[in-house]
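Notebook, p. 212. Picked up where the previous page left off. The plan for this session was modest: take the two constructs that came back from the sequencing core last week, fold each one, and keep the raw output in the notebook itself so nobody has to go hunting through shared drives later. Recording the first one now, exactly as returned: residue sequence, then the structure token string.
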Amino acid sequence: MRSTRTVRDTRMSERLRALHRATLEIVGAMNRPQRDEALIAEAGIALDRALFPLLVAIERFGPIGVVELAEGVGRDYTTVSRQLAKLESLGLTHRRASVADRRVRPAVVTPRGKATTKLIDAARERMARAVLAAWKASEIDHLARLMKKFAEALNGEAPVVSPVKPAAPARRSPRRSRPNPSRRPSGSPSR
């Protein structure tokens, strides 16, 4: 007979695999070029598909530096730097000197950029309403609350607690001394 703990662990593993699969499916759907093209068309704007997620990210998280922006959209910072220059030339963003670090020039949206993101937001809402048309309001509220909680946990905003109790250390022979983790050789990574 299997222990309750093993059954619980198996169920948790199944849940985590299901959560991971759903997350991959959502990310895959969100990253499809056709989805961005449809959103751009629905918004009625003329904007290169590669620039669209950058503009939205700058509006949501700006002022934001090139490196942070590149990490957020999963692109190389040199590519993002060139794309930021394009957004600036279109009058949708501008970069300003940072008060904290003069080497950094974070990007912010211009009024024209904000007007563009408002059109994108309205189009996104129309498209989301169509996707969620058969859902109850309580289901949408529940999904939004849990997705926010999940995003915060992934980004380290919520405490990370291991539900699994660490295994007891293996018993060693009394003649051997245990290594002291605080006395690592220099250059040795600590994980």
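Okay, moving on. Second construct, recorded in the same format:
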Amino acid sequence: MAACSGRRPRSGGLRLARVDVVHTAAAVAVRLGVSEDLVRLMAEQLSDEDGCILVLGITDEDWTPAFTTQGIDAVRELIAEFSQLQTTGPRP
């Protein structure tokens, strides 16, 4: 499980604002007009502080990243950066 940096939540400590809705990687892919694989790849660069969480299923292999509105914006920005690197190439 590498998506959303794979960090598990800690008990106690800093509390984040309550989240009412998250969107699955599949829903974000449709919304942004990209593949779900690309959204999952971008999720690997994000953390819960960026608005990306893991939704676990029955097994360790059964999971999907999910995104808050802030997380969708973060994915959108990462895709733009990724696309720019694809067209211009890495800097020397």
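Notes on construct two before I forget. The CA atoms of residues 51 and 70 lie 5 Å apart.
Flagging for discussion at group meeting.
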